[in-house]
Write a structure and sequence with these properties.
Blueprint lengths: L8 E6 L6 H10 L5 E7 L10 H11 L6 E6 L3 H7 L4 E6 L4 H15 L4 E6 L9 H9 L10 H11 L1
Parallel strand pairs: 1-2, 1-4, 2-3, 4-5
């Protein structure tokens, strides 16, 4: 068993509105590198989410209920402040070949300036998930389309329950 100081902790933050199979792919990839993952539902006052903050946290907890090394939180501040407060040393970010790099590079540079001890780590999503985004999933769902291939079953169940 590792001592507390040698545990490699990471956080994966996003609006996760909704959490997609692309997000799930990034979580699985990050667990190959990190011992502990904190999934942080980033709360933004400028966004109008489909899911409430509490709903997003509840769905994520349902998805990862069998994992003892994944912790789900919500946070309405800077993610680097969350990382510092919880002694997390790495921030996980997912990249798709759809123009993500420039924005992610800019965010990583700002985060590094704000908290130089927190390192950003990028994971490429699997090619079967390159095109998936939360906004596209919300749009397809809003038009009555089948999103079952794009989200975990817990997300689908929750969304179908909201339609009723």
């Amino acid at each position: 068993m590792k001592n507390k100081a040698s545990i490699k902790k990471a956080l994966y933050a996003g609006s996760f509105d909704p959490f997609t199979n692309g997000h799930l792919d990034i979580v699985k990839r990050s667990l190959k590198v990190f011992d502990e993952l904190h999934i942080v539902v980033a709360i933004s006052p400028t966004k109008n989410p489909l899911f409430s903050d509490d709903d997003r946290v509840a769905v994520l907890k349902a998805i990862f209920k069998g994992y003892d090394n994944i912790f789900v939180h919500s946070w309405d501040g800077l993610t680097v402040d969350f990382a510092t407060k919880h002694e997390v040393t790495h921030m996980v970010r997912g990249l798709r070949p759809t123009g993500d790099f420039e924005g992610e590079f800019q965010m990583a540079s700002m985060n590094n300036t704000l908290a130089s001890k927190v390192e950003s780590v990028f994971f490429m999503t699997g090619e079967e998930h390159f095109f998936i985004s939360s906004s596209l999933v919300r749009e397809v769902f809003g038009h009555g389309g089948d999103i079952s291939k794009f989200v975990p079953k817990e997300v689908l169940s929750f969304l179908n329950g909201k339609k009723k």
